[in-house]
Specification:
Radius of gyration: 14 Å
Strand content: 15-25%
Structural class: alpha+beta
Helix content: 10-25%
Oligomer: single chain
Number of strands: 6
Order of helices and strands: EEEHEEEHHH
């Protein structure tokens, strides 16, 4: 299936790790480019980095740029509870993702629209996401 908003997929990004990771498409810029976020199973680490990179993080709650995703939200694409750091978006070329040796789209696995909307809302609280990217989520 072609990558679209909500698609969960796996590939190897050497800027992150030598181990393949799962990603989610949060916006499709055009027929060639997508905006993605990476999933992490290291929930406490993600929370710590979100607090550091957020505009005015709340003192007593989870950072607004921290979104936790349960397996039940995407059982065919996730194997454990994960988190996304909404301060760390990437623009990727669709063909490069699909041509990656470790690419797997988990038979069209997708996150629910409500979860995608939570992620998009959270991006607006980031101080590291460039304004031209944030404009897609205004």
């Amino acid at each position: 299936m072609p990558l679209d908003v909500g698609s969960v997929f796996r590939l190897r990004d050497f800027n992150i790790s030598y181990t393949p990771h799962r990603f989610v498409v949060i916006h499709k810029i055009d027929a060639y480019q997508i905006i993605t976020l990476v999933f992490s199973s290291k929930l406490d680490n993600v929370k710590k980095y979100c607090r550091k990179d957020e505009i005015d993080p709340p003192d007593d709650d989870d950072p607004r740029t921290y979104i936790q995703v349960e397996v039940e939200e995407c059982p065919q694409g996730l194997t454990s509870t994960c988190a996304v750091n909404c301060n760390r978006v990437d623009v990727r070329k669709i063909n490069e993702c699909e041509e990656d040796h470790d690419f797997n789209d988990f038979d069209g696995a997708t996150l629910p629209a409500a979860t995608i909307q939570k992620i998009r809302d959270a991006i607006r609280h980031s101080k590291t996401v460039p304004d031209d990217i944030k404009e897609y989520f205004a």
